[in-house]
Design goal:
Largest sheet of chain A: 2 strands, antiparallel
Distance between the termini of chain B: 34 Å
Largest interface: A-B, 19 and 23 residues
Number of helices of chain A: 10
Oligomer: heterodimer
Strand content of chain A: 5-15%
Structural class of chain A: mainly alpha
Number of domains of chain B: 1
Shape of chain B: globular
CATH architecture of chain B: 3-Layer(aba) Sandwich
CATH topology of chain B: Rossmann fold
Shape of chain A: globular
CATH topology of chain A: ABC transporter involved in vitamin B12 uptake, BtuC
Helix content of chain A: over 70%
Strand order of the largest sheet of chain A: 1-4
CATH superfamily of chain B: P-loop containing nucleotide triphosphate hydrolases
Order of helices and strands of chain B: EEEHEEHEHHHHEHEHEEHH
Distance between the termini of chain A: 32 Å
Structural class of chain B: alpha/beta
Largest sheet of chain B: 6 strands, mixed
Chain lengths: 291, 233
């Protein structure tokens, strides 16, 4: 029982990172119809910029390092949209090739700048410890950093939901997810929203990468791949374009992977992919689309 | 002075040329029907005016200024409201949000216009806080038309408001449009001849992407041969 709780807790903390990736990926897909295969590389840049700032620029300043990583994601996302993606709206084939190309180039850039080897990242001292909770069925170890990541994930989900449901910007994005052409016909420059959403999506991915680095304690140029795959699966589970669906999908995935990892660890990576295939076949609108 | 003037308009979608020479003039305060068979190019004409379909040649002027090549949102802001064939209502938004989203300015005038829309379509007032996905076809059409009014546009383009609606709802919609036509210029694409007769005074017929006829609705009403030839009535 204690092991299950630990696995669930650890899984949910990674689910918070899936959510940071998937929420923006989903809104980008819903609003702009862009399948962004370069999203994982923004996550990767977030992780590396975080470490670079945390170790060399402002040593041990966790908050500044997180801010710099988030800004890096925002700027790279902005450049991606303005320079590349905006030229291929409506052309899915070109979008896939361009985002895949960007993913490869920017991942290789990480390798060139910071080297191919794994780099160690320390956790901030105030979040480095763990609490041991004693129960009748055993001891449950709660990592403070993982708890922090879960709390941050929840805060971002609540803020994002507020932004999407209570502000005019959010209203426009929700409308654009359904029919961006009609938003334009109402006199709104939807292209500005495309740029904004892509850049904020990059910021969220960069933020996720920054949170991931101390969680994992090592980063490599391949670190973004698994999270990108998981984010795509969450988007399919949650329903394309659905912010709340991404939150519920991330939680669902985290719990599922934790439980499968405990019972049949050999298929813990295969199972989500198989689930994605089943959902695409039998319920392509996702499990939580209308939420 | 013409509010909208279209001259020999040619527009295309992908490899297909859809409009092959549409010309018309709409005066301020008129209600004009665009008639024609299915696939004649009526919807494409409205979409071309809104900048949603690309133009190959010809001209479109609104208030004497060319709007060819302008972005759709800029055309809208010039004072053209648009109700598409599929309503264009946002399902994930409430009725209130659909109306508020359409407002170009947040001031007393737009608040008054929203109140006017709700008076014109009381069904919308009753369901004001409900999500648009819960609305019936008729209510969605009311929302689409109502939303196009909130900025007091000089011109409203309405695409087949009777499509898929029950006869009693069509009657209500026709009367509402007649009321709107007292304040705004309307271009109405319509297959339902009866509705076009109630709402509009003048017509153009588009056939195979070209304007082939134009005149007064009351003359067309009596010209069974013309109706048969171009409208299949």
């Amino acid at each position: 029982m204690a092991n299950i709780l630990i696995l669930l807790f650890n899984g949910i903390s990674e689910g918070a990172l899936y959510f940071l990736m998937a929420a923006s990926l989903s809104v980008i897909l819903g609003l702009m119809g862009v399948v962004n295969f370069a999203h994982g590389t923004l996550f990767l840049w977030g992780a590396y910029v975080f470490r670079w700032v945390y170790v060399y620029i402002f040593p041990n300043n966790f908050i500044l390092a997180i801010i710099c990583a988030t800004l890096a994601g925002f700027l790279i996302g902005l450049i991606f949209e303005k320079v590349f993606i905006s030229r291929v709206y409506g052309n899915i084939g070109a979008q896939i090739m361009i985002t895949l190309g960007l993913s490869i180039v920017f991942t290789e850039l990480v390798r060139v700048i910071w080297g191919p080897s794994a780099l160690v990242v320390g956790r901030p001292p105030m979040l480095a410890g763990a609490s041991h909770l004693e129960f009748d069925f055993g001891t449950v170890i709660i990592s403070h950093y993982r708890l922090f990541v879960i709390i941050v994930g929840v805060v971002v989900a609540v803020l994002g939901h507020f932004l999407l449901t209570r502000t005019r910007v959010g209203m426009t994005i929700r409308a654009g997810v359904q029919n961006s052409e009609m938003v334009g016909a109402l006199g709104i420059n939807i292209n500005r929203y495309f740029t904004l959403v892509f850049a904020v999506g990059g910021a969220l991915a960069g933020f996720g990468g920054a949170l991931f680095a101390p969680l994992s304690t090592t980063i490599t140029p391949l670190s973004g791949n698994q999270f990108q795959l998981m984010a795509f699966i969450v988007v399919v589970i949650g329903g394309m374009g659905s912010f709340v669906g991404s939150a519920l999908g991330s939680l669902f995935m985290a719990v599922m992977i934790a439980l499968i990892g405990w019972t049949i660890p050999d298929i813990s990576l295969v199972a989500p992919v198989a689930l994605m295939a089943l959902i695409l076949i039998f319920k392509p609108q996702g499990l939580f689309k209308w939420r | 002075m013409s509010l909208l003037k279209v001259n020999d308009l040619v527009s295309y979608i992908g490899l297909f040329t859809i409009l092959q020479g549409v010309s018309m003039e709409i005066q301020q305060g008129e209600a004009v029907a665009i008639l024609g068979r299915n696939g004649a190019g009526k919807t494409t004409f409205l979409r071309t005016v809104m900048g949603l379909v690309k133009t190959r040649s010809g001209s479109i002027t609104f208030n004497d200024a060319s709007i060819i090549g302008k972005a759709t949102h800029k055309i809208s802001k010039l004072g053209i409201g648009y109700c598409p064939e599929d309503y264009g209502v946002f399902d994930l938004l409430t009725i209130e949000e659909n109306l508020v989203l359409a407002t170009h300015k947040k001031n007393a005038a737009t608040r008054d216009r929203i109140a006017y829309v709700l008076d014109l379509f009381p069904d919308l007032k009753l369901a004001y806080k409900r999500h648009a996905r819960t609305l019936s076809g008729g209510q969605r059409q009311m929302l689409s038309v109502g939303r196009s009014l909130v900025n007091s546009p000089a011109l409203i383009l309405i695409d087949e408001p009777s499509k898929g609606l029950a006869p009693v709802v069509i009657e209500k919609m026709a009367l509402a449009l007649k009321e709107i036509a007292k304040q705004s210029t309307i271009v109405l694409v319509e297959q339902n001849f009866h509705m076009a007769l109630i709402v509009t005074d003048r017509y153009y017929i588009i056939d195979e992407g070209r304007t082939v006829h134009g005149g007064l609705m009351k003359d067309l009403e009596n010209d069974k041969e013309l109706q048969q030839r171009h409208l299949g009535l």
